[in-house]
Amino acid sequence: MAAAKLQAPSRASTSSASSFTPVSRQNTMSSHDGSRSMRASKRYSVTALYLSMSAKEKDLEIEDDLARAQKALRELKARISSQSKKNFVLEKDVRYLDSRIALLIQNRMALEEQNEVANHLDEAAELQEGFFPNDEKTQKYGNLLFLLQSEPRHIAHLCRLVTLAEIDSLLQTVMFTIYGNQYESREEHLLLTMFQSVLTYQFDNTPDYSSLLRANTPVSRMMTTYTRRGPGQSYLKQVLAERINSLIELKDLDLEINPLKVYEKMVSEIEESQGTLPPNMPKGVTAEQAAENEKVQAIIAPRLTMLMEIANSFLSTIIAGLDETPYGIRWICKQIRSLSKRKYPDASDHTVCTLIGGFFFLRFINPAIVTPRSYMLIDGTPADNPKRTLTYIAKMLQNLANKPSYAKEPYMVKLQPFIQQNKERINKFMLDLCEVQDFYESLEMDNYVALSKKDLELSITLNEVYATHELLERHAAELAKDESSHLSVLLHELGSAPAQLPRKENRVINLPLFSKWETPLDDLTAALDITQEEVYFMEAKSTFVVIMRSLPANTPLTRRPLRLDRIAEAAATTRNDSVMVKKGIRSIELLSQLQELGVIDKSDGFALLRDEIEQELVHLGSMKDKVVEESRKLEEVYRTIRDHNSYLINQLETYKSYLHNVRGQSEGKTRKQQKHQVLGPYKFTHQQLEKEGVIQKSNVPENRRANIYFNFTSPLPGTFVISLHYKGRNRGLLELDLKLDDLLEMQKDNQEELDLEYVLFNVSKVLVLLNKRFTRKKGW
């Protein structure tokens, strides 16, 4: 698990515990529909609390279809949370190396800088698991991380104090470790509480309305990072992927509406076809002159119509996906609306919606539309035409969500009808986004459950622990002004923060979390503001549901209306099943206690308790299909995240190989001098390369493809020869010499096509192939 684990003593018991409530804990994030009263919420929460505190052995284990489906879903969510963190770390490495490798390609990097990059690459390996080197420190850091997790105001304050240079490493720890279990309600709600604190400060301390949530600050970086977590990625995949991929396929659809670019392209085509330009079409005209050209206007007019149609289809898809929008995203929109109204009481809905749009579209939707590959929505890099179209769509949506601004691009004014037609529609959608229930009641219950746990853990690296400690220490004067505050006490006990460890010594540890100031929850009824009768009632309901789920279907005991006394008696007298006997005896005791307290009555068949049990069983019956469907959707998201992880790893491997080659050459160690032999040839059939996506397009006739194959050879470090062969002929039909520098530069410039006359290769896939075949060979 990538973060704190809130689970009962056995995994199976968690699934049974969570399923006792009409709205399961696993669905808390998406079911804030206000249907439960505060009292009911507290009663239902008691189930999880009771089970977590009283279950001492695996006596609540259920192995029905629902329990198995829930267990599989939990494990899948944990894998997505863990993989999201790995990708976040890898993306940081790749961003850094992109810029450094560009300098290497241009031969503008000194040897010392090459060594720095090499060290960075060496640190990109998977970390090993280990233990904290000091038991006393383990306890103190466990106290500190529990405090930071359960009292989000400290992290919120820290996020306001750090610089932009420091924010990424802090966000990595906060978003993917401290609150890293992205589908667990307590952690998600605590993280959102932290956001509320940060946003409140931002609104209170930003005098200029127009810059609210728009400037590139640690807060805006936080919001963008939040949208990149599993639930946000799942939404983008489900809502936008199909629409974007359909557009990407239209490689020849040119919807450029910048008059100057349209004019220049038109002039270039005329000059190429006719050799000379007519007198009325000179080169070097101004943007204004290009816009006045009638031919340019005629070209642009239908493009404007088509752009508006495409933008409308995107908008309709986004609006239709309202219910798919992650709860956390909607809750942040709700806070923006609330804080806007508080700061500007007279602000119109339109004004408030521009701020909501500043988050929802600017930080969440539009980056995914403009760079869909970075968001794992498409496989390759889009061609120039669809890439430009996607940029226009994002601008149109942003102008729709905000006040349109055409000062820099006056030609965008022509798209004004799209704004006018959809303004009310988009405002309604953004206000609808805000219509979600708050979580404070359930968070209070979850925190009581957490306090009762003895197995709360955080999977975290030693360097994350030390880096967080160092940031807290650096800003202690602001964060812990009161020397008697819990944070101040813990920082004083810990002393100075240790230095960051070398990569080889860094370890992933499971840090036990608990409060230094924990108070025993002996009096549950007082702590939770519920009665003893309600505790007994929920325990009885839970126990009977467990018994019913353990019984075979279609037996006399499962017929409605349920006879609770007979069910309890049958369970208590079960042969060869001591667990069921315990449940039966306990259910008999609970029926008796609840009768004595006047809560239920045997004369009406314990109707109050029986009806709730029957309703819960119906709910559980329908829940399995929902769990299976959610698992199906998340499996696709997990595959996408894994594929992206493979792409990032391959990118790092390419950089590593390239750097090894450059450094070897700078030291005068060519393969020739080392008397290394030529590597290869490695043979691939046309079918193989087509299947792996290396061949993007082929002009080889279908009936001849079976006789075509390719040889890949590396005669020198960083140099490759691809030759195309026809079976039965000794010599290749053609050869292509490649330099790794060229491939990397093509990838950097988003040039995805490599022309080999008869076939078009995909640059990224060629790099992956070269990695697989040559990367482990010495001197590559």
From TrEMBL:
PROSITE patterns named among the record's database cross-references: RAS_GTPASE_ACTIV_1, RAS_GTPASE_ACTIV_2
Pfam families: RasGAP, RasGAP_C
Region (Disordered): 1-39
Amino acid composition bias (Low complexity), ranges on this chain: 9-25
Coiled-coil stretches noted in the UniProt entry, renumbered to this chain: 59-86
Superkingdom field: Eukaryota
Limits of the Ras-GAP domain: 186-402
UniProt key word NADP: no
Keywords: Coiled coil
Keyword Coiled coil: yes
Name the record gives this protein: RasGAP protein
Lineage: Eukaryota, Fungi, Dikarya, Ascomycota, Pezizomycotina
